Amino acid sequence: MRLTFCGVRGSTPSPGPEFVRHGGNTSCVALSLDGDDAPTLVLDGGTGLQRLTRVLDGQPFQGAILLGHLHWDHTHGLPFFAAGDRPGSRVEVFVPSQGDDAEEVLARAFSPPHFPIRPSQLEGDWTFTMLEPGERRVGGFDVLALDIPHSGGRTFGFRVSDGRATVAYLSDHSPIGIGPGPDGLGEYHEAALRLAAGADVLVHDAQITAGEFAAKARYGHSAVEYALGLAGKAGARRLVLFHHDPGRTDDQLDALVAGLAGAGLPVVAAAEGTTLTLPED
Fold first, then answer.
1. Which of 28, 66, 105, 259 is the most exposed place for a label (fewest CB within 10 A)?
2. Is 60 in a helix, a strand, or coil?
């Protein structure tokens, strides 16, 4: 499979020259099957979803979008996704189950007076489905969705496999909500360990650091050090730090990763526009 990072920021976009290398768009990762250039599965619909239109080179999107939760930074790209909002597109949107109608739940922040149209008014063939925890086939991939703690609404982490490689995706994760854990940064709880177990790549919330944790943990995010600990405990082969703080510059991200040298596994900070091909040669 191939992962394309379309948006890697958390909370709000970060424009400006100091955010160019890693990018300023919010959460969106596109997955393609081997031998297929066009992504068929998208994890989250932040402002980075606009970049996927360029990846598709003008072709309509045919596939699924899994929303880990419904905060603005994970949904704001949906009405601006030109490859989906056009005749000929086929877009399945999956929302963590809450209520009876997925489109209606999404429309609470995506309809007048908050926005000119509602989700059902997008062009093309869009469907909106409540997603329950468990395993299912989505966009040609095997997907496991599990509840993980995060402030302000039901949130899923995902484990995605094509039969040859596995990606774990926990974009917004607040393990302190379950308990302090051994380091005071949150529990290494069952769902997180199951999602990340033996994954080729763990893409994980790294919005804050241990030093910032006391002041910022109330917003529902993980410390970089927790992500590293989870990768080690779960046996993940590679860690990609994700959902970067909107104020953390490229230079600061580079310094953060440099400080993790010798961590025992490869660690990188996600950068908009980059791709990973799995399994790696």
1. 259
2. coil
